[in-house]
Design goal:
By secondary structure, the protein is an alpha+beta fold. Helices cover 22% and strands 37% of the residues. Belongs to the peptidase S1C family.
Length: 402
């Protein structure tokens, strides 16, 4: 059982009451004193009795370089965009469609993308875009940043393998052309800026930003949709947002130079920030050929290639006579008459494993290596025939335009 001492409780109440009175008096005095100091502080500072406090500087803070022009703050990104945005165009794919009754045909917009003006000469302006943007078009129209009415464009050349195309328009209304950078000097982590027309001309010249995620990715290309990789494309990876309609538009560096042509992205549920652009150094070589020859001048050796991995392993030894250590390569399915391969002595069922001492694992790698060469170049081919390694020298021929 507990108990309660009333006399003791009364003493405690008196003590608490006294302490509270003292505390309240001290608090009121402190507040009044503080207010007096604040009121007199400016006079004391001007009189020199109190030194003026210096503003503290934060440590370990990195400033972003900005410049002021005409009362506006302009970042490096804004400068880069201002340098190039007027060279970005909309590319509209127009195709003929029959009317509902089938009595007439009319031109309708089938799709659209982006492009960038890279050259102006002899009254003509040239635009680079993606092949898949203009593929199947009956007519291609180009929408300039400085003109609301689209211009009709001429397709100078297109290349499905690298997904590039060059268009020509009247240059009378073109005032600016884009500057190409050097994609071989790119570094992971540096700024990347994409400009294009995502989801159509309603959002024309939309700007998105990010970084270079990788400077050297390889993407498989299946041209004939047979499930076999026909070519391996070198691309730049970026996390700058690239959406449908951005295709063919420029990827810029911080100086506003074009370092790539936006081409594709990985669009899967839960995947973000995986966009890809064709490096501008490779683009330059392709578009020069398209303007000069209307097609890409590629070499060829004149064989029908098949990946070794697509052939039953039982045939590796029984039909091809390969040693067990050979697990990849390109099988010669056929040799064209009067071709460089025939002149070099290649035969059906030979298995190519190296070009110029570089290992070749499949036909996509073989094409990629060859397409970096020119007709007339000499290369060395290492191949197996009946279990024996052989070497042949071959002079590359010129591939006929498709």
């Amino acid at each position: 059982m507990g108990f309660y001492d009333e006399e003791y409780a009364g003493i405690q109440k008196k003590r608490k009451s006294g302490r509270a009175s003292v505390f309240l008096s001290a608090l009121i005095g402190a507040v009044i004193g503080g207010m007096l100091v604040l009121m007199l502080l400016p006079s004391l500072v001007r009189s020199g009795y109190v030194p003026e406090a210096k503003q503290a500087q934060p440590k370990n803070v990195t400033s972003v370089p900005v410049s002021t022009s005409g009362g506006q703050t302009t970042s490096n990104v804004t400068k880069a965009v201002n340098k190039t945005e007027n060279t970005v165009v909309g590319v509209i794919n127009m195709q003929q469609h029959q009317s509902f009754a089938g009595m007439s045909t009319q031109m309708e917009e089938q799709g659209n993308g982006s492009g960038v003006i890279f050259r102006k000469t002899n009254g003509k302006a040239y635009i680079v875009t993606n092949n898949h943007v203009i593929e199947g078009a009956s007519e291609v129209q180009v929408s300039l940043a400085t003109n609301k009415k689209p211009l009709t464009a001429k397709i100078i050349g297109a290349d499905p393998i690298t997904d590039l195309a060059v268009l020509e328009i009247d240059g009378g209304q073109v005032k600016e052309v884009a500057e190409f950078g050097d994609s071989s000097k790119l570094q992971v982590g540096e700024s990347a800026i994409a400009i294009g027309n995502p989801l159509g001309m309603e959002f024309s010249r939309t700007v998105t930003g990010g970084i270079i995620s990788s400077t050297d990715r390889t993407m498989p290309v299946d041209l004939d949709k047979d499930g076999q990789t026909d070519y391996e494309m070198n691309v730049i990876q970026t996390d700058a947002a690239i959406n449908p309609g951005n295709s063919g538009g420029p990827l810029l560096n911080a100086e506003g130079q074009v370092i790539g042509i936006n081409s594709l992205k990985i669009a899967q549920t839960g995947v973000e920030g995986l966009g890809f652009a064709i490096p501008i150094n490779e683009v330059s070589r392709i578009i020069d050929d398209l303007i000069r020859y209307h097609s890409v001048q590629r070499p060829y050796i004149g064989i029908g290639p098949v990946d070794l991995q697509r052939i039953s392993p039982d045939e590796w030894k029984n039909t091809l006579g390969l040693p067990e250590k050979v697990q990849s390569g390109v099988v010669v399915r056929n040799v064209e008459n009067v071709s460089p391969a025939q002149k070099a002595g290649l035969q059906m069922y030979d298995v190519i494993v190296k070009l110029d001492n570089q290992e070749i694992e499949n036909s996509a790698q073989l094409r990629k290596y060859l397409f970096e060469k020119r007709a007339g170049d000499n290369i060395e081919i290492s191949y197996y025939r009946d279990g024996k390694l052989k070497i042949a020298k071959i002079t590359l021929g010129k591939q006929e335009a498709q």
